[in-house]
């Protein structure tokens, strides 16, 4: 609703309307009415925001989690994103709003208050430690978890285990429990994560599946893929299966804790997969060219800060590398053997699945770059840097509203860049 304040000229008369009783004394003749004021036509009032896609959360004013209350299907940043891609040659930027309520079933909440009146939620404002209790949060899914029934063998949650970790040996033993961290484990009544009840624990699974399906369309069948910032390798492994990658799929991740998840997923790949698949515990910022060589498609899913400068530079200078490699006796990679042991170890695959057929080593360089962004500002800078090199051109972009109501809600989906083609996909958010 719009409230208009109109200011009349100072020379205008003031009209006062009074009501008198019938017995009142007759008043003298009234003066002629003042001239009518000519005011601009009243603009069409702004309609009330629709509640169809409104957050309708009782905690919106006190909780810092959400910043957009109405029109959740259209994040505030959407118009800026549309204009940005149009300016850089993509006029058909597309966007999926995904699930608008109950989209999170895994959350890290602060606990304060007392044992009789606990406060569980997020901080009132970022930068403070004053907790807003949010029992009716619209972003968190009600899982309706059923307790385990010993007699019937039904139900979902069997045990809750809480353990204090005291691995900080730098502290005296008497202080370790005081400064320990609590690890909470839920024991589920399920033999594997594919059971119907286990789906309740998969946060944002549907939205991410949508991203994977769109991304797969921009990778040609039989391509060699380098999946950088790969985590547990979900993207790389999905491409190995759906795009029948004949050569290699290299997944590179700096966090070694992702290795067990990669191994568990790789064990369940169908027997029809015939590709050399590897997982490397390595920093992509060190000798990034070594991960690009031999790949037709590079997929990057960096943290919010964006691409490491060394990787960005390697992508910008691919033509120079190719030109140098065409010289007699030259190679894309340094002929001199690497002697730094940590570099040598990082290039060795910690997990290796051999192809059933013999494949020749490829020295090709990527023709397609797919950029999955969870930080809008860093993506814009990386995108402009890649385009300014005249090596890549932007040919598609798609956004996903993974976190409705927040400024981390829209991610650039796939941006195939092409030279080379660059695609941008969003997961996570345009906000920082």
From TrEMBL:
<feature type="signal peptide">
    <location>
        <begin position="1"/>
        <end position="20"/>
    </location>
</feature>
<feature type="binding site">
    <location>
        <position position="229"/>
    </location>
    <ligand>
        <name>S-adenosyl-L-methionine</name>
    </ligand>
</feature>
<feature type="domain" description="Methyltransferase small">
    <location>
        <begin position="210"/>
        <end position="303"/>
    </location>
</feature>
<dbReference type="InterPro" id="IPR007848">
    <property type="entry name" value="Small_mtfrase_dom"/>
</dbReference>
<feature type="binding site">
    <location>
        <position position="253"/>
    </location>
    <ligand>
        <name>S-adenosyl-L-methionine</name>
    </ligand>
</feature>
<dbReference type="InterPro" id="IPR029063">
    <property type="entry name" value="SAM-dependent_MTases_sf"/>
</dbReference>
<dbReference type="GO" id="GO:0032259">
    <property type="term" value="P:methylation"/>
</dbReference>
<protein>
    <submittedName>
        <fullName>S-adenosyl-L-methionine-dependent methyltransferases superfamily protein</fullName>
    </submittedName>
</protein>
<feature type="binding site">
    <location>
        <position position="301"/>
    </location>
    <ligand>
        <name>S-adenosyl-L-methionine</name>
    </ligand>
</feature>
<keyword id="KW-0489">Methyltransferase</keyword>
<keyword id="KW-0808">Transferase</keyword>
<dbReference type="GO" id="GO:0006396">
    <property type="term" value="P:RNA processing"/>
</dbReference>
<keyword id="KW-0732">Signal</keyword>
<dbReference type="InterPro" id="IPR010280">
    <property type="entry name" value="U5_MeTrfase_fam"/>
</dbReference>
<dbReference type="Pfam" id="PF05175">
    <property type="entry name" value="MTS"/>
</dbReference>
<dbReference type="GO" id="GO:0008173">
    <property type="term" value="F:RNA methyltransferase activity"/>
</dbReference>
<keyword id="KW-0949">S-adenosyl-L-methionine</keyword>
<dbReference type="InterPro" id="IPR053304">
    <property type="entry name" value="RNA_M5U_MTase"/>
</dbReference>
<comment type="similarity">
    <text>Belongs to the class I-like SAM-binding methyltransferase superfamily. RNA M5U methyltransferase family.</text>
</comment>
<feature type="active site" description="Nucleophile">
    <location>
        <position position="374"/>
    </location>
</feature>
